[in-house]
Amino acid sequence: MGKEPSGEFEYSRGLEGVSAAISAMSRIDGDDGILIYRGIPIEIMAENSTFEEATYFLLFGNLPNKKELDDFTTEMKEYRKLTSEEIEWIKNFPKGGHPMDALKTCVSYMGMEEPPPPGEKQTLRGFTKNGKKIIARLPSFVAAFDRARNGKEILQPDNSLPHAANFLYMLHGEKPDEESAKILDLAFILHADHGMNASTFSTYVTSSTLSDIYSSIITGIGTLRGPLHGGANERVVAMLQQIGSPENAEDYIMKAIKEHKKIMGFGHRVYKAYDPRAKILKDYAKNLAGKEESKLVETAIKVEEIMMREVSKKGIFPNVDFYSGFAYKAIGIPTDLFTPIFAVSRVSGWVGHCIEYRQQNRIFRPRAIYNGPIDVEYTPMDERE
Ligand code: ACO
């Protein structure tokens, strides 16, 4: 309990254990390693659904019938296209900038392209429409920035392709094979929502001031970027490359544990069991890995074995980031696009939560316990040491 001039209140570091909203979108059972989207286990969604369908389901609450899905997909395809101004703008971005910064900047630009009329209160319908536009266009932005920084021509979407396959086309300049498109679609589904988490919470906070959806999504992208959240998969691959081979894993991991260093891709605030998404991705990653990645996969499996032996009793297991990196690497995605790809998937959850919260809105206003001094005298400059 903390105490402030106006009374006592609870303090929870990192808001642990505090429920901040009511949501029907996804539920995590961290003890048993279960994730459901609106009641359906993630394993079933992964096996049967597509990113477009999962997004519709998350946003609107029902599995779409054929017409609903066709209409939604057609609308999303319209929104994928980059405007000529966006293309010019992206071409002039600093080539060495981080793609997450490029993404934030693009969303911000997009919001400025269609400003709401001054003084007009945005309807939920308008808010939702802008949300759908962002979901549709994020992959186009990521691909365009990657091509521009590599001196390649920026491509417009190929509307004969679904969402994930189109992203690979816009990135690589050729239509992807079925297997690559499938794994990316799967990764998009698995990352689309995850209850309340740091980035989703940050979108809630921005949205709760009745700010616009572009601002909320920019906040989410900024929060996701950190290495304790979405930035971990980039570091997993870097760590495994540093370990080099399964034979080196034992020494590396034991030394890290001894020095209280965190192993990237392990541990989770909620899951104290195996993350179900990591289980699904592990199977795909093993099958998909080419020569270079298969060495990484073998090293990863060895790392997992040691970690399970050493720290699983503390509730530390592989999380979704541990195996997603190989999958992305195997389909030719550069390492620094891993986190942007996470954003491209999670944006469905962010938008869905913002729409949901708008209907129960209350501005977030937690408090801080002041622990600094009081009654300090102001010392004039010439008397200070
Ligand atoms: N490697 C080794 N030890 C770990 C790890 C890890 N990855 N994660 C937690 N621990 C240990 C801590 O050292 C601590 O041990 P102690 O009790 O002996 O001091 C104990 O487990 C609890 O650690 P906390 O940091 O309090 O656990 P918390 O639940 O707050 O942290 C977090 C969760 C931030 C994800 C943490 O596990 C971590 O930093 N993991 C590595 C980064 C990572 O993979 N992030 C991706 C998360 S998934 C996602 O965002 C999509």
Secondary-structure map:
Elements (H helix, E strand, L loop, with lengths): L1 E3 L2 E3 L16 E4 L4 E4 L2 E2 H7 L2 H10 L5 H15 L3 H8 L7 H15 L10 H26 L13 H10 L5 H14 L6 H11 L4 H12 L7 H12 L2 H13 L17 H13 L2 H21 L8 H11 L7 H21 L27
Antiparallel strand pairs: 1-2, 3-4, 4-5
Helix pairs in contact: 2-16, 3-6, 5-6, 5-10, 6-7, 6-16, 7-8, 8-13, 8-15, 8-16, 9-10, 9-16, 10-16, 11-15, 12-14, 13-15, 14-15
The structure holds acetyl coenzyme *A.
Acetyl coenzyme *A binds next to α15.
Structural overview:
The chain is mainly α. It is 57% helix and 4% strand. The chain is built from 16 helices and 5 strands. The strands form 2 sheets. The chain has a 3-stranded antiparallel β-sheet with strand order 3-4-5. Strands 1-2 form a two-stranded antiparallel ribbon. Helix 5 (99-113) runs antiparallel to helix 10 (213-224) and helix 11 packs across helix 15. The model has no long low-confidence stretch (mean pLDDT 93). Acetyl coenzyme *A is lined by residues 228-229, 232, 260, 262-269, 311, 314, 316, 319-321.
Briefly say what this structure is.
By secondary structure, this protein is mainly alpha-helical. Helix content is 57%, strand content 4%.
What characteristics describe this protein?
385 residues; mainly alpha; Cytochrome p450-Terp, domain 2; two-stranded antiparallel ribbon; 4% strand; globular; binds acetyl coenzyme *A
Under CATH at level 1, the class of the largest domain stands as: Mainly Alpha
Overall helicity: 55-70%
CATH topology of the largest domain: Citrate Synthase, domain 1
How many distinct folded domains? 2
Class from helix and strand fractions: mainly alpha
Uncertain spans: none
Strand order, largest beta sheet: 3-4-5
Helix count? 16
